[in-house]
C-alpha cells in the first residue's frame, strides 16, 4: 500500500512539474504553486484536467483552492479516487 501511495504521489508530481515546466527536484511537497513557482489559474486548470485523465476521476473545481501545493493535490486526488490513507 505504501508503494502504491508513493507511485501515485510520484505520478502527480511528474504531471505537475510537466505542466509548470519545472524539474522535479525544484518542487517540494509544500511549495506553493502560485507564490513559489509562478503558476496561474490556467495552469491550475491544466493540472486538474491532466489528473482527471490520468486517474479516471472527476475533481470539483471548488477543490482548486486546496490544490496549491503537491501535498494538497495528492490529498484531493486521493479523496476523490477513494484511495486509503
UniProtKB/TrEMBL annotation:
Query: Which PROSITE patterns does UniProt cross-reference here?
Result: CARRIER, PHOSPHOPANTETHEINE
Where does the record place it? Answer: Cytoplasm
Gene Ontology molecular function terms on file: acyl carrier activity
Domain (Carrier) ranges: 6-81
Give the UniProt keywords, A-Z: Cytoplasm, Fatty acid biosynthesis, Fatty acid metabolism, Lipid biosynthesis, Lipid metabolism, Phosphopantetheine, Phosphoprotein
| InterPro entries associated with the record | ACP (IPR003231), ACP-like_sf (IPR036736), PP-bd_ACP (IPR009081), Ppantetheine_attach_site (IPR006162)
Q: What Pfam families does UniProt report for this protein, alphabetically?
A: PP-binding (PF00550)
* Record pathway: Lipid metabolism; fatty acid biosynthesis
Q: What is the annotated signal peptide range for this record?
A: none
Residues with the modification O-(pantetheine 4'-phosphoryl)serine, per the entry, are 41
Modification after translation (UniProt): 4'-phosphopantetheine is transferred from CoA to a specific serine of apo-ACP by AcpS. This modification is essential for activity because fatty acids are bound in thioester linkage to the sulfhydryl of the prosthetic group.
Record bears the keyword Lipid metabolism: yes
Q: Which GO terms describe its cellular component?
A: cytoplasm
Q: Keyword Lipid biosynthesis on this protein?
A: yes
Q: Which HAMAP family match?
A: Acyl_carrier (MF_01217)
Stated role: Carrier of the growing fatty acid chain in fatty acid biosynthesis.
Protein family membership = Belongs to the acyl carrier protein (ACP) family.
Which protein, by its recorded name, is this?
Answer: Acyl carrier protein
What taxonomic lineage is listed for the species of origin?
Bacteria, Bacillati, Actinomycetota, Actinomycetes, Pseudonocardiales
Q: Which gene encodes it?
A: acpP
Amino acid at each position: 500500500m505504501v508503494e502504491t501511495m508513493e507511485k501515485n504521489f510520484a505520478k502527480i508530481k511528474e504531471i505537475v512539474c510537466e505542466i509548470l515546466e519545472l524539474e522535479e527536484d525544484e518542487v517540494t511537497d509544500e511549495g506553493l504553486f502560485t507564490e513559489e513557482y509562478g503558476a496561474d489559474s490556467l495552469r491550475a486548470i491544466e493540472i486538474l484536467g491532466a489528473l482527471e485523465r490520468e486517474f479516471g476521476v472527476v475533481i470539483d473545481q471548488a477543490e482548486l483552492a486546496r490544490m496549491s501545493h503537491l501535498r494538497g493535490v495528492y490529498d484531493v486526488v486521493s479523496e476523490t479516487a477513494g484511495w486509503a490513507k
